[in-house]
Amino acid sequence: xxTNMARAWHLKSRxxxxxxxxxxxxxxxxxxxxxxxxxxxxxxxxxxxxxxxGRMNDTKSYVPxxxxxxxxxxxxxxxxxxxKAEGFAKGDLVQHMAGWRDEAVxxxxxxxxxxxLGADPQAYLGILGVTGLTAYFxxxxxxxxxxxxxxxxxxxxxxxxxxxxQIAKAKGMTVIGSAGGxxxxxxxxxxxxxxxxxxxxxxxxxxxxxxxxxxxxxGVDVYFDNVGGxxxxxxLALAKNNARFAICGMIAGYNAAEPTSLRxxxxxxxxxxxxxxxxxxxxxxxxxxxxxxxxxxxxxGAVKAQETVVEGLEKTPEAxxxxxxxxxxxxxLVKLTD
Length: 338
Prior knowledge:
Elements: E1 4-11, E2 24-31, E3 38-47, H1 51-55, E4 76-83, E5 93-96, E6 103-107, E7 112-113, H2 130-142, E8 150-153, H3 159-170, E9 174-179, H4 182-190, E10 195-198, H5 204-214, E11 220-225, H6 229-238, E12 239-247, H7 267-270, E13 274-277, H8 287-300, E14 307-311, H9 316-322, E15 331-335
Parallel strand pairs: 8-9, 8-11, 9-10, 11-12, 12-13, 14-15
Antiparallel strand pairs: 1-2, 3-4, 3-6, 3-15, 4-5, 5-7
């Protein structure tokens, strides 16, 4: 009997601090036979995201930790090569979570056909996927950002941050973004940001003070946090009364032995600051709202998708590790080659 084999990256050991290639191992895996309600999918694009670092620790969170010596998981776009599920046919492009591998057998209920919005397939892992959804609901719902607000976005050249900048500008807000280095700061300005803080050029709090003056504001109404650490400190120090913080991620602390600082946390009292953490899947029932808004923005050019593409399944861990050293502009993706 012929067996179907796939290649998948496994978590070989749990990282201590910054992960290394020694924590990963690529191995052949045998795919199970296709049963009713199942799909066999050949992956075309893989997503790597900072949240995956947390799943490499053996700690309780909103998603279970990755298991040692088991295939890793993550967002992927693939082509259905065999279907035993109603509503799915060979050749359909689907989004699913069996990433970090070249092929997978998955339950059809865990796959989503790509909506027909005239976009490239990989966009559904970025600006039209979890990345865009996170930016949209985090900014407009969690932080309740509105026209005229001054919005500070950390990691504004990254996947989520760059989407936040563009959505905020499309909604008539003043935007300050942070990025590392002259090239990325220029990119953030090109997205429409009114001022930029270069966190590699000097202390972030001092840079934010300068940026706030540059846009003619007295402080920050909204902070979209992707970094934590000194960025969160700066936002707390410069927050206006009744400022709203959407706490999306804290990449500065993902590999740190000690918690990131909150030197100005007491300002939440006097300034009545609201800090709210969120997970994008909290808004799953409202994804239709996002597509209705983002589709026209993409077509008009008000929002653009920026991607950093690494080619080859073998380079997946390398692409993931690049997230922590700023090697991506926009969404980091892995393109699988035939």
